[in-house]
Specification:
elongated; alpha/beta; Rossmann fold
Length: about 375
Amino acid sequence: MAVGSSPRAVVADDSHFMRSVISDILEEGGIDVVGVAKNGHEAVEAVAETDPDVVTMDVEMPEMNGIEATDRIMSTRPTPILMLSAHTDENADVTFQALEKGAVDFFRKPGGEVSMEMSRLQDQLVEIVRSVAAVDPTDSSDVASARTAGSGVATDADAGVDTDRPADAATADTETYVDDPTVVIGSSTGGPTVVEQVLSDLPLAADLRVLVVQHMPSGFTGRFAERLDARSEYTVREAEDGARIGGGEALIAAGDYHMEVQGYRRGRLRVGLTQDPPVNNVRPAVDVTMETAADVVDDPLAGVILTGMGEDGARGIRAIHDAGGFTVAQDEATSAVFGMPKRAIETGCVDGVAPVNDVAAAILDAFEVT
């Protein structure tokens, strides 16, 4: 997409009403709808015919569903895709599968009085469609090969982080780490697969306590926690009010709730959930978790900002830095959207910038006993 130009979109949904509502919202937001589709087959054809900048893709459609269409598009004509998913457990599972196939992010379809609720969410939908349209869908291979191929060593000296360590160091069981370390990870657009990668790269031997704040609506964070639990060495669960974790455990902030660190004693954290007003227009907000962690945790602490739009996490990174903690941001080359990492870096409080494959290594370096 040319800089400054209006994004061109294809809208795929099996409901004629929803296609009309979504198309009207995007057009009113300055996004040119160049094609519509009522099933996955038509979506694939529309992308081939119109070469859009972005696709909004319904999950459940006849003949070919959203995940199949996403797979086909990404293999034939890679295009940034935003999944539109209803709030059901089945759709949550399929949505995460679509992200694995290359979709950039997802947006929860409204329920109830659909036209009224979608109108209320209009600004959010236009903003995320614009952000997704700016993503280069051909960069996924670059992310996967960010670590120097064949050398077993990776460096990012230009970015200010030294990751000169064996390629398998993030899974080694022989390193010695400081006691009681805590990591707070924040991400948004493009974040679910990146969070999964970082967490799976962290060895259980490091005995970290991990708090993850991913901008994600309610109804999806529980499934996200289950996926991370199955794909990492850590015990991962969705946060509940009053939940406690020790080393080797992780909590995922629940959708529509801020996650505050409210207590810390004998190596265990206690969190509380609130529905206080959104911060940075989001709930959960990364800033809330990072700032409360900086206030409460007096053992080694690290803050990590991954891909995402907006500025959430910048204040939190500053708070962790001011409390003596280590801070790292994902680099621009491997970020789907370089909004949140950029804002964090601009604070001057980021200790290192790293490609996604080296974020875990940077965290482990900070916590190693020298």
